[in-house]
Design brief:
The chain has 584 residues and is α/β, with parallel strands linked by helices. The chain is 30% helix and 16% strand. The strands form 5 sheets. Strands 1, 2, 3, 4, 5, 6, 17 and 18 form an 8-stranded mixed β-sheet that branches. It has a 5-stranded parallel β-sheet with strand order 7-16-8-9-12, covered by helices on one side. The longest helix is centred in the C-terminal third of the chain and has 22 residues, at 449-470. The structure holds 3-acetylpyridine adenine dinucleotide. 3-acetylpyridine adenine dinucleotide (N01) is lined by residues 69-70, 157, 163, 178, 196-202, 204, 219, 221-222, 340, 343, 361, 365-366, 389-392, 445, 504, 509.
Length: 584
């Protein structure tokens, strides 16, 4: 079996109309897979529904040329199994998408997950039956399942954003989206290709597409900050040494604001002499990757400090790109790292190729598609194929696709219309027993995703086990505690320069969406500690119903590895401001 082999669990498995399980999990990416593993371990029955034909989620869908992770492979992987850590060998510092998908398939096989996953099946509706205290889940192939718990493992970046360009239906060639790339090889040889967008997906795919295409035109609305990846093969010696220290690396990672470990410099950039700053930036640029933002401690808190790293990065772009006019267009004029920082391999250098052209659509947007290409400002760009690297309806887009109905007929879409509201990003008032893995209001995309997933899944599994212990029927956030958390998430975000620009973090990459800073930027370990305190305090901020009064003594089942030492305390805005913690 190769990583690309579409896998169906039970192709002949007919829709179930009367299934009754403890939990339904929506999605079989890393979150859904680990959730299933934990549920099974606790003796709960579960059904996982997955729209794709295989496991892997993000890494199943995002198969565009050049797709790879920009968190180091040794850390972008499950940490729950020491044996898995020791036995799996990553080939590169930053794993390519096919290898990550192979890993997902390996995990599915190793833990025998497929038998409870129904592939090629999309959950269309989930409704809470207040009398039965159960969720009724429906799918697009006619399944009707009753579950005590409904667990959304739908991913943060999994609902592609397809802008409604005028005339798009007239275009004669194929139009691809990086987030829903075909499973067959796409060959751009000899073609005139247009790429719309310059975010992470675009900057990874552009250098590869340029190698094939006869002509490549990139339509850029906002110039992107990108740092060289400095990817490399991992030697057997490196792997041996790293694995000898693996548990320590995992523990250190859990103590970091980002949930992954890298060396960083706490000193404020503004306290360093210009020569020291230059040297520090040069060294960090030479090491490459997201840790570049850890060159100094104040880069995402002080605009004047940020200006110093932005000036440095602009100089690098001008050195890398030969044509001054193109270089000028590629130099962002916004806060460095405000949008998610990109990590590339020869992105800027690609614009030195004679057949690659950059078109600025910042002030004159894409006017229309025609049968033969794209028009901007009255100029026609003839194209044979178009790649939309236009991103996602982040954090909430996948929830919007499912009709989720809670108490009193309220839908989650209605409740979240002005922005998502969830307690700890784990659950939302009015929707009992509905859990949201890496939901809005949790560190999620601001931490290493797999780390964030494991912490959420373990917390939820521990919670469900506790409810079973005490004979409870439902758990649901208390409105006031949820409101306070949502307010805290917003408060903390204002301390970071990240809250100042338009990006998918705040939902404004898509016209009409409310501007709300959705992930929790207060730091991963502080968030973990808050979750632990909530649990050990008897699920503070939640109301648990149905348990006999004699059974409600708090019994903490907290998964041991989440008793995380707080390396850096960043819970309050003041602490964030004072500590100057680099968060990439
Ligand atoms: O999406 P994006 P992405 N006309 O939203 C442009 C993760 N990820 O798929 O900036 C013209 O970043 C849009 O322009 P603007 C990672 O967290 C990780 O690239 O809104 N252009 C932007 O340039 C990442 O941040 C990895 O002005 C339009 C681009 O499309 C996240 O996924 C790899 C437009 C979208 O960029 C999303 O990345 C890939 C329009 N109408 C992704 N609409 C790794 O781990 C949008 N754009 C390496």
């Amino acid at each position: 079996m190769t990583a690309d082999t579409p896998i169906r669990a039970q192709p002949e498995r007919p829709p179930e109309t009367e299934a009754v399980v403890d939990a339904v999990v929506v999605g079989a990416g890393f979150a859904g897979m680990y959730m299933l593993h934990r549920l099974r371990g606790l003796g709960f029955s579960a059904r996982v529904f997955e729209a794709g034909s295989g496991v892997g989620g993000t890494w199943y869908w995002n198969r565009y040329p050049g797709a790879r992770c920009d968190v180091e492979s040794m850390q972008y992987s499950f940490s729950f199994s020491e044996e898995l850590d020791q036995q799996w060998n990553w080939s590169e510092k930053y794993a390519p998408q096919p290898e990550i998908l192979s890993y997902a398939n390996h995990v599915a096989d190793r833990f025998d997950l497929r038998r409870d996953i129904v592939f090629d099946t999309r959950v269309t509706a989930a409704a809470f039956d207040d009398e039965a205290k159960r969720w009724r889940i429906e799918t697009d192939r006619g399944d009707r399942v009753s579950a005590k718990f409904c667990i959304m493992a739908v991913g943060c970046l999994s609902a592609p954003n397809r802008p409604d360009f005028a005339g798009i239906q007239d275009f004669r060639g194929p139009i691809y989206h990086t987030g829903e790339w075909p499973h067959q090889d796409v060959d751009f040889s000899g073609l005139r290709v247009g790429v719309i967008g310059t975010g992470s997906s675009a900057i990874q795919s552009i250098p590869i597409i340029a190698q094939q295409a006869a002509a490549l035109t990139v339509f850029q609305r906002t110039a992107t900050w990108s740092v060289p990846a400095r990817n490399e093969s991992l030697t057997p010696e490196f792997l041996r040494a790293a694995k000898a220290e693996y548990p320590a690396l995992r523990a250190k990672a859990r103590g970091r604001p980002t949930g992954f470990y890298f060396p960083f410099n706490m000193k404020p950039a503004l306290e360093a002499a210009p020569e020291e700053r230059e040297q520090q930036y040069e060294e960090a640029w030479a090491r490459g990757g997201l840790p570049f933002l850890g060159a100094f401690g104040d880069l995402l808190f002080e605009k004047a400090a940020n200006d110093t790293i932005a000036d440095f990065a602009r100089r690098k772009i001008r050195q890398l790109v030969k044509d001054p006019a193109t270089a000028a267009l590629l130099c962002p004029d916004n806060v460095f790292g405000c949008k998610r920082l990109c990590v590339d391999t020869t992105y800027f250098e690609t614009y030195n190729l004679p057949h690659v052209k950059l078109v600025d659509v910042s002030t004159t947007p894409i006017e229309r598609f025609t049968a033969d290409g794209i028009e901007v400002d009255g100029v026609a760009y003839p194209l044979d194929a178009v790649v939309c690297a236009t991103g996602f309806a982040a954090m909430t887009g996948s929830f919007d696709k499912i009709r989720i109905t809670g108490r009193r007929g309220q839908t989650l879409a209605e409740k979240w219309r002005a922005g998502p509201r969830a307690y700890l990003g784990i659950a939302s008032a009015g929707f009992p027993n509905l859990f949201t893995i890496t939901g809005p209001g949790s560190p999620s995309v601001l931490a290493s995703m797999i780390q964030a997933i494991e912490q959420h899944v373990d917390w939820m599994a521990d919670c469900m086990a506790h409810m079973r212990d005490i004979g409870a029927t439902t758990i649901e956030p208390i409105q006031g505690d949820e409101d306070a958390w949502v307010e805290h998430v917003t408060d903390v975000s204002t301390v970071s320069l990240r809250s100042t620009c338009s990006s998918w973090y705040v939902g404004t990459n898509i016209p009409g969406r409310p501007r709300v800073f959705m992930p929790y930027i207060g730091g991963f370990p502080v968030y973990v500690q808050k979750c632990n305190e909530v649990m050990s305090g008897g699920f503070e901020g939640f109301v648990i119903e149905g348990a006999p009064a004699s059974n409600t003594e708090p019994k903490v089942r907290l998964t041991e590895r989440w008793r995380v030492p707080i390396d850096i305390d960043v819970i309050s805005p003041a602490a964030v401001a004072a500590r100057r913690v680099p968060m990439v």
